[in-house]
UniProtKB/TrEMBL annotation:
Limits of the Ig-like domain: 640-741
Protein name: ADAMTS-like protein 1 isoform X4
Domain PLAC: 959-996
GO cellular component, one term: extracellular region
Residue ranges crossing the lipid bilayer per the database entry: none
Compartment(s): Secreted
A Pfam family hit: TSP1_ADAMTS
Superkingdom in the source lineage: Eukaryota
S-S bonds: 31-66, 35-71, 46-56
One example GO MF annotation: metalloendopeptidase activity
Keywords tagged on the record: Disulfide bond, Repeat, Secreted, Signal
Signal peptide: 1-19
Record-linked InterPro entries: ADAMTS/ADAMTS-like, ADAMTS_ADAMTS-like, ADAMTS_CR_3, Ig-like_dom, Ig-like_dom_sf, Ig-like_fold, Ig_I-set, Ig_sub2
């Protein structure tokens, strides 16, 4: 009995904790993105053991959005960043630049495209949390699933932005006329700034009315909201090579005529903007000049006149001369180089006694001072004579002594000398030593080798074999070969060192006393027969045998007696191709018989082959500047002006008429039985030459149709299917057409009904007087407006239209003119189209069916599969609340499917402990439940017919005093605070003893 109560308690406890087995939620995780909308999550853990067959009901994670502030304009798209992360990884053995791709069915899978290919590659099973599922929508991918996000950045929010950009708004700004109604829109890029090569395109923005969708003046949009100007590079085609001209360099001289140079390069622009230097032949000729003359003006120069006579006839005087600077422009002579204009002079006659030694000394001293003042440009040193007077020095210079004797009498030797920097002091009448740095000229050498004769006594001649034989046949000579060597080292020396050595006896002997063999005597090649294109050079080749050396006598032999093959007597020369030249044919006849035409002639680049035949080659082989003219203008007599005067209008006949007169250039609807005259007004040519076509084929006159002398087309009593068609008049190179349709009376009555209301004045609008081209009468010209057509759509911004026409209405016909004719008369033209049905279009969008579920069995062998169905806005591809879609047409979200895994089985619990007193027999029980195989979901009565497991069995209770747990449920007894009960303390001794006793309840 106690055992049964224990089982009941355990069952109640399990029932109570089944609904509360989750741990507390964790704190929110770090946001997946720093801007642009990311995702964060909380996690909770199931307290049940992973080995337990019973799981935890509910979701383990819950999500929220975060960091919804927009990223900067320069930031890269989040999906593009994820693709770009693979740029440094090889794929298929190659490196690619990866571009983003969004798959409609799997927007949360990372698909990318290698740049330059059309291959879509799946690089990751899931994109990072926070990646947008769709373009221009807030929906984001979280854990590989696309979550709907409202404009309030909340998950599963149905709020969307209205046309005013207000989240959850009702487009109120479009009704109250505020500036919210107008916004900037991107209308595309400007044309490329360059016709070839790399250029720039700018993004264009215009102000648009959200209500009408029309473009309005830019003043209605806020300038502060206009997007900043952006640009992108563009490339249409590769530019042809052009000359790149660099700036002129400085002139080579400042005056007197020099030259300036500049670089000129033939450059080719590549698609990426880089420039490539080509050979000059690839650019148009002639090449711009690279040298030009400069600074032609004369350089400034000093011109000095003759010295005047000395100012005295005796003693010391003065001479003067005139110095002029000749120059052009703003250039002047160098003042530092200006010649002196005044100098001292003296005569050889003294004004007193010429024998006075003082005067002679003074005269010499003065002459020295004069020499120092006018002969030296810079003073190197001076000596102080007293406190107030100095004497100048002469220019320092190197003073050298005589060479010393050679250090030896023969062989290698040197000689030396002294070199000092000195200056002459005129006042002291002596030379003074100075440092070498004071002398400006190069210092002379202090030593040099003595070019003495070698020591001839140290050399001797020694024999060293014989010289080679002087001839190879008919007897030559050879003699002893002597070599000059040093007596001590025995090293070979030049022969001139042994000129005084003792002569060695020379032995001569005859050698090679044999007849000469036959050989080829080969002459030199002559000049080439051609200067290019392949010519020949010839030479004389003879088979000979020499029989006498002194007289150069030879025997001429047949060629077969000399070594074969014989040397060639000719060879090719100047094989380089001859330069190509332009060749041209005769001028063709002028392309026109009157007016300005052209004449053509063939021009080709040809090269003469070795056979003398001309061969056409590519034009770049010929000099482009010498290309003959291939086309020229020819002026024939002036052509008469030809013009067909068209009348652009539609003529519609409403009532029977005997005859109708029409003009080419428009359309006509004619009742059967009416005679038609079609006029083709032509100026400047004989109207008899007018030809008529019907549907592109020439008109053949007969009893029904004829052409008048004035070139007009007459048709008697037109009939349907016979006279319908397009009639064209042709004269010269001009032509004009009119389309004529034969209508039924019922059609004419339908068109007549509306026109009669205007004709009778019931529906008159603004009108203007206009001359009817049919009968030259003045009639009112007015605008006809039809009823509005039904809206083009039932939702999603449709349009409705109506017909507007500019017409002149008479009793029996009306004429339709282009609308510009009515505008010309100032008649107001109504709109032809309006928007309608602004309600957005929605439809149900169903995802793919899931696989047949194993944990949702319905009956044996059957389960069901599920799918997500959402309400889809067709205008912006966003998900909206289900209330916006028609509930009756909602597709099913689940359906039955066959699943062999759905099999009912009996599930049994563990056996209870033995229900008996210590040392007595008792029994054990266990629970029984019908579940689906592979899980623990109840299967109801589906186990009927299956053998039921045994639920009761006998047992013997072996009592023990060890503190052990006797049941698998003991682990949760402390959690449930049941240890305060004696029964649980006994059965769960170990678990309860490890925990503090709970206070009694």
């Amino acid at each position: 009995m106690h055992g049964i109560l224990f089982l009941i308690c355990i069952s109640q406890v399990l029932t109570e904790i089944r609904s509360d087995h989750w741990n507390e939620w964790s704190s929110w995780s770090e946001c997946s993105r720093t801007c642009g909308g990311g995702a964060t999550y909380q996690e909770r853990k199931c307290l049940r053991s992973s080995r337990s067959k019973e799981g935890c009901e509910g979701e383990r994670f819950k999500y929220n959005t975060c960091n919804n502030e927009p990223c900067s304009q320069e930031a890269q798209d989040f999906r593009a960043q994820q693709c770009a992360a693979y740029n440094n990884a090889t794929y298929g053995g190659s490196l690619y630049t990866w571009l983003p791709y969004t798959d409609r069915k799997s927007p949360c899978t990372l698909y990318c495209i290698p740049k330059g290919t059309r291959t879509v590659v799946r690089l990751a099973p899931k994109v990072l949390d926070g990646t947008r599922c769709k373009f221009n929508a807030f929906d984001m991918c979280i854990s590989g699933k696309c979550w709907p996000v409202g404009c309030d950045h909340k998950l599963d929010s149905p709020l969307t932005q209205d046309l005013c950009g207000v989240c959850g708004g009702n487009n109120s700004c479009l009704n109250n006329g505020t500036k919210e109604r107008y916004h900037w829109v991107d209308i595309g890029l400007t044309p490329c700034s360059a016709s070839c090569g790399v250029g720039v395109q700018h993004y264009q923005y215009r102000c648009r009315d959200r209500l009408s969708g029309n473009q309005v003046p830019e003043g209605r949009c806020a300038k502060s909201q206009k997007p900043s100007e952006k640009e992108k590079t563009c490339f249409k085609r590769q530019c042809p090579p052009v000359w790149k001209i660099f700036p002129w360099q400085a002139c080579s001289v400042n005056c007197g005529g020099g030259s300036a140079t500049r670089a000129v390069r033939c450059m080719d622009t590549l698609p990426d903007g880089r420039q490539h230097w080509l050979h000059d032949s690839f650019c148009p000729q002639p090449k711009p000049s690279t040298v030009r003359p400069c600074n032609p003006r004369m350089c400034p120069r000093w011109y000095a006149g003759e010295w005047s006579p000395c100012s005295v006839t005796c003693g010391w005087g003065e001479q003067v001369r005139e110095v002029l600077c000749r120059h052009e422009g703003d250039m002047f002579c160098d003042l530092n180089a200006q010649p002196v204009t005044r100098r001292n002079c003296t005569t050889i006659f003294s004004c007193t006694d010429p024998d006075d030694p003082r005067l002679v000394a003074e005269h010499d001293d003065y002459a020295g001072q004069q020499e120092l003042s006018f002969g030296i440009s810079h003073v190197k040193a001076d000596i102080v004579v007293d406190a107030t007077e100095t004497k100048h020095l002469d220019l320092p210079k190197y003073i050298v002594s005589d060479w010393s004797p050679c250090s030896a009498t023969c062989g290698i030797s040197v000689r030396t000398r002294y070199v000092r920097c000195q200056v002459q002091l005129q006042y002291l009448k002596q030379m003074v030593d100075l440092p070498d740095a004071e002398c400006t000229e190069p210092k002379p050498n202090l030593s040099e080798p003595c070019n003495l004769e070698p020591c001839f006594k140290d050399f001797k001649w020694i024999p060293q074999g014989l010289t080679p034989c002087s001839r190879s046949c008919l007897g030559g000579t050879q003699e002893t070969h002597l070599v000059c060597v040093h007596k001590i080292s025995n090293l070979t020396q030049p022969d001139e060192n042994c000129i005084h050595a003792e002569k060695f006896p020379i032995e001569r002997k005859v050698c090679n006393e044999i007849p000469c063999p036959q050989r080829w005597r080969i002459g030199g090649f002559g000049e080439c027969s051609r200067s290019c294109g392949g010519g020949l050079m010839n030479r004389e080749v003879k088979c000979i045998q020499q029989i006498d050396v002194s007289l150069d006598r030879v025997l001429n032999l047949p060629d077969l007696m000399c070594e074969q093959p014989a040397p060639p007597t000719s060879r090719d020369c100047n094989t380089q191709p001859c330069p190509a030249n332009w060749a041209f044919g005769h001028w063709s006849q002028c392309s026109v018989s009157c007016g300005v035409g052209i004449e053509l002639r063939p021009v080709v680049c040809q090269r003469i082959t070795q056979d003398g035949d001309p061969l056409d080659v590519d034009e770049y082989h010929c000099p482009p500047t010498e290309r003959p003219e291939a086309e020229r203008i020819c002026n024939m007599s002036a052509c008469p002006e030809l013009k067909i005067k068209e009348l652009q209008m539609k003529f519609f006949q409403m009532n029977p008429m005997d005859k109708v007169r029409l003009f080419v250039g428009g359309e006509a609807s004619i009742l059967p039985g009416t005679s038609v005259l079609i006029l083709c007004p032509v100026n400047g040519k004989d109207k008899k030459k007018i030809e008529w076509l019907k549907n592109g084929k020439p008109v053949r006159p007969n009893a029904q149709i004829a052409i008048s002398k004035r070139g007009n087309l007459r048709i008697k009593k037109v009939w349907p299917r016979t006279d319908d068609g397009k009639y064209t008049c042709v004269i010269g190179n001009k032509k004009s057409s009119i389309k004529m349709t034969i209508i039924e009376f019922m059609h004419a009555m339908q068109e007549t009904f509306l026109r009669e209301q205007y004709l009778r004045g019931y529906m008159n609008n603004d009108s203007a007087s206009h001359v009817d081209p049919y009968d030259k009468k003045v009639r009112p010209l007015q605008v006809l407006v039809s009823e509005w057509s039904p809206c083009s759509t039932t939702c999603g911004h449709g349009v409705k239209k109506r017909k507007i026409s500019c017409e002149l209405i008479a009793e029996d016909y009306f004429e339709v003119f282009p609308l510009k004719v009515c505008k010309k008369y100032g008649i107001q033209i109504p709109t032809v189209m309006e928007k309608c049905n602004f309600k957005p279009c929605t439809k149900w969008a169903a995802d793919e069916w899931s696989q047949c579920l194993n944990d949702k069995c319905l009956k044996k062998d059957y389960s069901y599969k599920v799918r997500t169905v959402k309400c889809f806005n067709e205008m912006n591809s966003s998900i909206v609340h289900d209330k916006y879609c028609h509930k009756a047409s909602k597709p099913p979200t689940q359906k039955e499917c066959k699943n062999p895994a759905c099999q009912p089985v009996w599930y049994t619990s563990e056996w209870t402990e033995c229900l008996a007193n210590c040392g007595e027999s008792g029994y054990q029980t266990r629970m029984l439940m019908c579940v689906w195989a592979g899980g623990e979901l109840p299967a109801g009565r589906n186990c009927e017919g299956l053998a039921r497991p045994v639920l009761l069995r006998p047992c013997f209770n072996h009592c023990t005093h060890e503190c052990v747990d006797e049941s698998n449920y003991c682990k949760i007894v402390p959690v449930m605070k049941l240890c305060r009960f004696k029964n649980f303390q006994t059965k769960c001794c170990h678990s309860c003893s490890s925990k503090a006793q709970d206070p009694p309840s």
